[in-house]
Design a protein that fits this description.
The protein is built from five helices and five strands, in the order αβαβαβαβαβ. The protein has 153 residues and is an alpha/beta fold. It has a five-stranded parallel β-sheet with strand order 1-2-3-4-5, with no helix packed on it. Helix 1 packs parallel to helix 2. The longest helix has 14 residues. The radius of gyration is 14 Å and the shape is globular. The N and C termini lie far apart (35 Å).
């Protein structure tokens, strides 16, 4: 469903219908502006799906708030193994939210691949991500290219 001009208005009924179809393993929502309400619908879907393994939401102009909502769904999800959030508009607070998703003491997420390249995660987000990886035993590939960490991050 990449680049279909989907918004929070159009994505909610799509996600509701997917809940009844338990066979979807990959979902690409890249280049759509889903907004906070769309992320809330996605969070609900992620909390209930038992089959989705790959989720791609790249180049979707996601804000820090949208990432925080998505993370709440991902923290309850145990099936998604690959998540691509590259080339969005989020900053350090989103990095801190993503760190919670990777921290096994507060999250059930079983991600093995996370691409958050080309975002402005910077120092505080980088530090939070680094801390969350100490006890994470599932993540095997993390792409942090072009995230503006600087020397302190």
């Amino acid at each position: 469903m990449q680049n279909n001009r989907l918004t929070s208005f159009s994505i909610k009924p799509i996600l509701e219908s997917l809940k009844t179809r338990g066979t979807l393993v990959s979902l690409t929502l890249s280049e759509n502006k889903l907004g906070r309400a769309g992320m809330a619908g996605l969070m609900s879907y992620l909390s209930s799906t038992k089959t989705l393994e790959t989720l791609e939401i790249s180049n979707a102009k996601m804000s820090d708030g949208e990432v925080a909502v998505l993370v709440e769904g991902m923290k309850q999800n145990t099936t998604v193994k690959e998540l691509d959030l590259s080339n969005n508009d989020f900053n350090s607070p989103a990095g801190e939210s993503l760190a919670q998703m990777l921290d096994p003491s507060v999250s059930r997420s079983a991600l093995t691949f996370l691409d958050i390249s080309w975002n402005q995660i910077r120092k505080h987000g980088a530090i939070a991500l680094g801390e969350s990886l100490k006890d994470n035993n599932t993540l095997t590939l993390l792409d942090l290219s072009y995230c503006a960490f600087g020397d302190a991050g």
